[in-house]
Amino acid sequence: MLERAWGRLAGVADLLLREIAHLVTFDADDRELQGVDLRISGGRIAEIGRLHPKADEEVLDASGMLVLPGMVNAHQHLYQVGLRCIAELERVTLEPWLSGLGRLCMQWWREGHFTPESVAALARAGMVESLLCGVTTIADQHYFFPGGVTAPYIEATIEAATEVGIRLHAGRGTMTMGLSEGGMAPDETCQTIDEVVRHSLELISEYHDPDPLARTRIHLAPCGPHVDRPELYAVFAELAAEHPGVGLHTHLYEQIDTEFCRRRYGMTPWQFIGEAGWHRDATWLAHMVDAPHAEVADYAAAGVGLVHLIAPDLRMGFGLASVREWLEAGCTVGFGTTGSASNDGCNQLGDLRVAALAHRLGSADPDRWLSVRELLAMATRGSARCIGRSALGILEPGAAADLAAWDITSVDRVGVHDPVAGLLMTGLSDRAQLVTVAGEVVVRDGHCVSADEETVAADARAALPPPA
Fold first, then answer.
1. What would the pLDDT profile of 302-360 be if each residue is shown by its tens digit?
2. Domain total for the chain?
3. Which of these three, 362, 386, 410, is where a domain ends?
4. For the CA atoms of the chain, what is the radius of gyration?
5. I need a surface site. Which of 45, 86, 299, 343 has the fewest CB within 10 A?
């Protein structure tokens, strides 16, 4: 599998982007450069500066482009691409949303529509959508195993990522504590810890690549303290410590788990995962919407990553996470979309615009509002740090050749004084003009070229059950 993933890189030509209108590096000095050239070679950024074309490289005119590092979506559920805009779940809070989603997925499974093939088709559509908005790496979390059966849903998703050409952190999600045992997951979706560990080790052995430029990595991702046993968190911490590059990821402070941990364990969710050995820099946490202010300094000291998910947080009525406080405390902060069932899209760029506007409600002091550059840094460098990938999310020599470029000369960008702010605040479309992953051009002229968009969309629609 890994040989096939790297094999596609062998045929990738060197690339030179000439006269870039505006380059945002998100390097250690947060450099922004105008009129520079960028050379890609061997899947890495080779040079940035005033460069002369070489005979064996493709040259692209970037004089009308804003270029950023490829974005990293640090929290996603790709199988949920088939669960957008469900009418009866349009205006519900978290618990009825979860139960409604679960019932529908179980129905699909019983009718033979929830299969590895259908999950792959839906994931492929989500990956292409992600590439088109400038996302080059996805951290997925697949936790739904109906009937408790370990079907190869994650394996199928990894194969789809290899075909499409996007980097994937494939999360072995879990639900291990059902209603009959005091948890909040339906019993028919739960698995034993032994089975989860068996499959996790199998995934790590077959697919995990600790290389700094890996296309595929595995991380261990319990769904949450309200549906997973404490013992699982402890076992996963041990497994991650034994396997370099394997990370730890979970939902935390998503409101539903806060009250559960207080009632069942007499502690906060942060204390819960701490007892299992998760207070470490291999950990990143999604949502964190009602985290106690008194704990924020501890998150920074532990080095854990915090992933902001503005669209689902608003969709579920959670409100605004304390992102400014996280940044001021020195936390590692990333950005993601979560699954399409609570977001209705994979458009990370669109969600960044929502965040730029929504967080203005959190303070009357404009200096405390999240700036466009802070948000874009979260979605690139910040998310990459969350998932343990220091070679991603930045543009500098030696870094991965993952980048995204947008046309800033179009009619919808007329009058924009700051092209970086204009990327979020203006535009008829969030489609990138150019996207590369490991130096491979996967989006060119605003269209995916690593996969046929129409075929991907048709296959995904065919994977869904017929309308009721």
1. 999 999 999 999 999 999 999 999 999 999 999 999 999 988 889 999 999 999 999 99
2. 2
3. 386
4. 21
5. 86
Note whether 157 and 168 are within 8 A (CB): yes
Q: What pLDDT was estimated at residue 10?
A: 47
407, 352: one domain:
no
pLDDT tens sequence across 111-131? 999 999 999 999 999 999 999
Same structural domain, 316 and 414 = no
Q: Give the C-alpha separation, 281 to 289, whole Å.
A: 20
SS3 9: helix
Each residue's pLDDT tens digit, 210-262: 999 999 999 999 999 999 999 999 999 999 999 999 999 999 999 899 999 99
Q: Are β-strands 434-437 and 283-287 bridged in parallel, bridged antiparallel, or unpaired? A: unpaired
Which tokens belong to 355? Answer: 């965040």
DSSP code at position 381: I
**What CA–CA distance (Å, rounded) separates 51 from 118?**
46
Q: Domain of 231: which CATH number?
A: 3.20.20.140
Residues 231 and 366 in one domain: yes
Final residue in a domain of this structure, among 364, 386, 408: 386
Together in a domain, 253 and 379: yes
* 198 and 345, same domain (yes or no): yes
Q: What is the DSSP string of 97-150?
A: HHHHHHHHHHHHHHTT--SHHHHHHHHHHHHHHHHHTTEEEEEEEE---GGG--
Q: Please report which residue ranges of 151-268 form alpha helices under DSSP H.
A: 153-164, 193-207, 230-242, 256-265
Q: What is the pLDDT of residues 409-468, one digit of tens each?
A: 999 999 999 999 999 999 999 999 999 999 999 999 999 999 999 999 999 999 999 876
Q: Report the pLDDT value the prediction gives residue 226, as an integer from 0 to 100.
A: 98
Could you give the CA distance from residue 401 to residue 41 in angstroms, rounded to a whole number? 8
pLDDT of residue 468: 65
Query: Which residues have CB under 8 Å from 468's CB, separation 6+?
Result: none
